[in-house]
Amino acid sequence: MRVLLLAHLSPKTGNCTTAERIRSHIVAAGHTCVLCDTREFSSPSDVSSLMMQEPRFEAALAIHLFKGGRLLLDAGLPFGVVFGGTDVNEDVKDGHKRAVMEEVLHKARFAVAFTEALKEHAEMFLVCGSKKILVQP
């Protein structure tokens, strides 16, 4: 399976480290994983264009509901999201971002939180199906 992994890849940050770890696990499972920086795309249509190129992607994963997940809304393939404190502690305060994050959660096949507390915050502040949110420390 060919998987697109979107993350905000500022060097030597937690996001970059997390993205590399996830990519390593996907590759170790026998799949191909293409890691892309969310800053390379200005809109979901840019990601959709990437999806149309050969070889095609079969799935996608994004880190951050807003920064990465919003870019997958028009991707036309199954996707999941990994979220953290910025999503549920800061971005939920912005009405526009919160609406986008709720749409991402609605369309995502699954969401991953790193702690039970983050999952609980998401359930408290975002309209989402709690069965979609998995906790993976």
UniProtKB/TrEMBL annotation:
InterPro entries: Glycosyltransferase_G1
Taxonomic superkingdom: Eukaryota
PANTHER family associated with the record: GLYCOSYLTRANSFERASE 1 DOMAIN-CONTAINING PROTEIN 1 (PTHR46660:SF2), PTHR46660
Protein name from the UniProt record: Glycosyltransferase subfamily 4-like N-terminal domain-containing protein
